[in-house]
Write the structure tokens for this entry.
Amino acid sequence: MKQPETSDSNLRRARGRPRGWDDKTAQNTIKSLDRAMEVFEFLSEAQGKALSVISSEMGQSPATVYRILVTLEGRGLVEFDPVEQVWHIGPQAFVIGARFLRRTSLVERARPIMRKLMEQTGETANLGIQKEGSVLFLSQVETHASIRAFFPPGTLSPMHASGIGKALLAEMDDDRLTRTLEGQRLEAFTQYTITDLAALRDNLAQVRHNGFSEDGEEKNLGMRCIAAPVFDFNDEAVAGISVSGPVSRVSPEDIERLSGFVIEAAQALTLAIGGQGRRETV
């Protein structure tokens, strides 16, 4: 008798999800659970709401919303304030969110976003973080062009002459910025490197206003970098994402167009690691 197939893909599918798992039609969804999640997500964005307000703003009956809230309350996902007579997100929601954050890998989640950024811009995409006053490059997706920037993982670069470095510096409060730059020599790598502290602070203020930074041949002649910050769930800038390429392809006229793609990628990575998404520039 012929034995049934037991390929690796079949085994993985059997363990994780049934045949036709990508079918999102009504027959494969639980309407009551979907409705409960709508209430849960609504409350997460608008905490401290009374039952009547939730039901009115969601267009659901008070009885339905109440049953959902009581069910979620039993799991600790929401809680009721008997004094104010309003509902809030519960502590178990944070516990579950923290579990997600523990499994979140910045580099792993950045790869598809960086690949898309490289394809959109035609230039090399980079990911970096701050480490002991320098930018540490964690990952790179290289362009297919013959002339390209190259920052292999593990490369360190001075923050004041780096697109990612300036994107991260611009998000620091004044005290932290002073501590970071204190005692550091703003070394000149090219004639375009900013070596004056006051001028650097002015540049960082502009970076924060724009939402992106530019390294215009400040580290390497002939190369330009455009970068934007990535924020975690505490709204802290924990990384930067950038594109780098020769000035012949990344000219001043290209900055506005390319910066849009970079900011979009940084926002996508922010959301992917549990951050709050687009934030207003000041």
Summary: The two ends are 72 Å apart (CA to CA). The first strand starts at residue 78 and ends at 81. The chain has two domains: 8-100, 104-272.
